[in-house]
Backbone:
């Protein structure tokens, strides 16, 4: 509904306010008159009427209404059928190159995925006030630059693709990071991310990275049922592989093969290849850690980040020995680049535990416990502490 209103008014703030007004009106009207036959249409009409009233009271808005009326009668007006989904269309609009990359992604997550500012800040490893300011600046930039709500021409799609892919993957990750009390809402997010990724593959059939992202999502989704048991996070090596969704794994591997056949390897294809190594191993002992270490080295080249380096450290530890992996983790700790990121001490703790250094592992697990953002992860860390 917000996407439709933004497309009609071109005003982010007005669209969000009128959508909220429509829901407020529904709380009163539906309680009195009953839920309408088509609730979505009722809400969209109410929000659109509210936007029309607001525009009529404003000189600039009145001009906008006249412009909309002309476009409605103009057979040569803007055509938007190239992207047959209102939400995906708005994602491409948000991802205009005039807006800084992190702000593009953050604004899209806030407007379209309904994620809170706090959730987006967590995804970007930053603070909520910093993210709030970033969102305000992004909206202001779009308004001041007069960035239009329209499907970009075909030649402009690739330069927006990286941000669009980042948005879809963050939507997926937010849904994948489920807590027991909100599983339905979280699974709706992952389902929507996969749906939009499939649309993107059809929209850009000659681009390999949308396929890489879709493969990555499918391979992760295949393991969802075994990630959390009784409210406790389950480590990959301890998950019940007989419960993994083999149809999703087969589809993910097939989609990845299609992407790799285009011979333009990107970060999502490499991440999908790592996920495929885990998903296709018959058991934890059969995991091809040397191949995963090579893939992480390639990922670090294509998309360098301290989080990638941390994951690579685990693969190196499993391939070349715990000491080699710990050296990499200690280097990251000293750099301070992942300060406050709970998986840094958690990874260090796990490697120390495997190296039979119980006292040091306990201290690291306690550090991780203080930083862990979800109860499922905290329960997992408490369990490790109890084992030690």
Residues:
């Amino acid at each position: 509904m917000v996407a439709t209103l933004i497309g009609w008014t071109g005003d982010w703030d007005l669209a969000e306010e009128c959508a909220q007004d429509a829901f407020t009106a529904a709380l009163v009207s539906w309680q009195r008159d009953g839920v309408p036959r088509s609730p979505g249409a009722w809400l969209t009409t109410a929000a659109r009427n509210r936007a029309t009233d607001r525009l009529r009271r404003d000189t600039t808005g009145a001009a906008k209404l006249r412009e909309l009326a002309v476009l409605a009668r103009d057979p040569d007006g803007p055509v938007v059928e190239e992207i047959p989904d209102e939400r995906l269309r708005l994602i491409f609009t948000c991802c205009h190159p005039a807006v800084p990359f992190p702000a593009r992604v953050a604004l899209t997550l806030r407007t379209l995925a309904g994620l809170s500012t706090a959730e987006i800040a967590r995804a970007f490893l930053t603070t909520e006030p910093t993210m709030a300011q970033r969102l305000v600046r992004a909206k202001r930039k779009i308004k001041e630059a007069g960035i239009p709500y329209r499907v970009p021409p075909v030649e402009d799609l690739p330069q927006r693709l990286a941000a669009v892919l980042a948005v879809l993957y963050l939507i997926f990750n937010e849904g994948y990071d489920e807590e027991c009390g909100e599983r339905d809402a979280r699974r709706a997010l992952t389902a929507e991310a996969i749906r939009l990724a499939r649309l993107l593959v059809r929209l850009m059939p000659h681009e390999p990275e949308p396929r890489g992202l879709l493969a990555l999502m499918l391979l992760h989704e295949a393991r969802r049922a075994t990630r959390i048991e009784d409210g406790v996070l389950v480590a990959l090596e301890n998950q019940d592989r007989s419960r993994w969704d083999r149809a999703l794994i087969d589809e993910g591997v097939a989609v990845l093969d299609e992407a790799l056949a285009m011979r333009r390897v990107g970060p999502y294809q490499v991440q999908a290849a790592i996920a495929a190594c885990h998903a296709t191993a018959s058991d934890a002992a059969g995991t091809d850690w040397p191949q995963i270490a090579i893939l992480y080295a390639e990922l670090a080249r294509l998309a360098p980040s301290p989080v990638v380096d941390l994951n690579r450290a685990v693969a190196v530890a499993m391939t070349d020995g715990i000491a080699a992996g710990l050296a990499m983790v200690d280097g990251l700790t000293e750099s301070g680049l992942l300060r406050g990121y709970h998986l840094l001490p958690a990874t260090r703790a796990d490697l120390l535990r495997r190296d039979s250094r119980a006292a040091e592992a306990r201290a690291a697990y306690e550090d991780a416990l203080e930083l862990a953002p979800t109860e499922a992860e905290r329960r997992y860390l408490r369990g490790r502490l109890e084992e030690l």
Notes: Residues 12-33 form the longest helix (22 residues). Confidence is low (pLDDT under 50) at residues 69-82. The beta strands are 228-229, 232-233.
